[in-house]
Structure formats: C-alpha cells, structure tokens
Q: What sequence folds into this?
C-alpha cells in the first residue's frame, strides 16, 4: 500500500510540475511576443520621426541654397531611404502638392460657387480626356453650400474631407474619382 501511495503522490507532484512548466512556457512566449511587438512599434515610431526630420532638412537646405527655383529633379523630390533603424525600413518621398488641383477652389469661402475654379476643373477634365460632361459642375454642386444647381440631388453641400468621397458623388465614376483623387 505504501508503494501505491508513494507512486500516486509522485505522479501528482509530477503532474503539477508539468502544468507549472507549461504555464511558465506560455507566459514566457507571450512576453517575448509582446516585447517584439513593442520593439517593432518603437522602431516604426522613430523611423517615422527620422523620415519627417530628414524631409524637413532636405526642404530647409533647398530653401537656403536655391529658394528661387523649385523643380522635380532636385534632391528633395527623389525618394530616399533612411538606413539603420533596426528592422524598420524607412523610405521618404516628398511630393509637391501645388501640381494638384485643389477641389476647395470650386467654392468661395462663403460656400457659394466659384465660376473660375469650375472652369479650370472643366478644362483639366477635357485635357485629360475624362468622360463626364459637366463633371466640374457636378462636383461643385456637391460641395457648395447652396441648394441651387443642376446636380443638387443628394448633394452633401459641404467640402470633401477625403479624396475617396469623390466616388460617392452621383455621376462620378470610380476611375474618374481615382484620377481626380491623385490630382
């Protein structure tokens, strides 16, 4: 009987030890995963900050050396990589937003239609060969504050917040919205 009791106690202690070791292993693995994620987040955060600061330095240097002339063959316009930020790879690209059409120019500050802005967008649409007669008026009526115009049905009558909203305007195709969102 004593051998049976001793065997049972040994098996019980062994079972408890196995459970404790398994729990310790799971806890350790979870801690390792959390630590790796924290390190990756930290590298990403500092990578973004490094990219932003490098972009600022490029623009500041360009402003100090050649403030009168800007073109897309200058160093600031080329994509560059910041090396040695752990496992993170940071690529920086500075884009000149002045070459894009600003859709807020379709309305004035008071929310009324801006005829010159609509005419410019209409001309750009024609030059690009995009389909859609009256596309500038359609977008303009969607974003202007008034409820007057040929395309007011379902209009938001507020400025667009994100480029993807272009695709929500009735009569604007997805391909047209993606082209205009990239302008």
A:
């Amino acid at each position: 009987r004593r051998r049976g009791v001793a065997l049972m106690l040994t098996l019980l202690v062994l079972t408890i030890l196995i459970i404790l070791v398994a729990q310790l292993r799971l806890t350790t693995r979870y801690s390792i995963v959390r630590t790796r994620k924290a390190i990756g987040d930290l590298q990403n955060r500092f990578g973004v900050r490094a990219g932003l600061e490098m972009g600022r330095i490029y623009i500041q240097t360009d402003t100090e050396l050649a403030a009168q002339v800007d073109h897309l063959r200058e160093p600031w316009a080329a994509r560059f990589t910041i090396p040695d930020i752990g496992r993170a790879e940071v690529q920086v690209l500075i884009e000149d937003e002045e070459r894009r059409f600003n859709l807020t120019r379709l309305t004035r500050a008071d929310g009324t239609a801006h005829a010159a802005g609509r005419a410019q967008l209409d001309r750009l649409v024609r030059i690009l060969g995009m389909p859609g007669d009256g596309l500038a008026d359609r977008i303009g009526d969607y974003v202007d504050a008034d409820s007057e115009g040929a395309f007011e049905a379902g209009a938001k009558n507020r400025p667009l917040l994100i480029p993807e909203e272009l695709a929500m305007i009735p009569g604007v195709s997805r391909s047209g919205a993606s082209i205009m969102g990239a302008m």
About this structure: The helical segments are 2-65, 115-128, 135-143, 174-181. The chain has four helices and two strands. Residues 2-65 form the longest helix (64 residues). The mean pLDDT is 82.
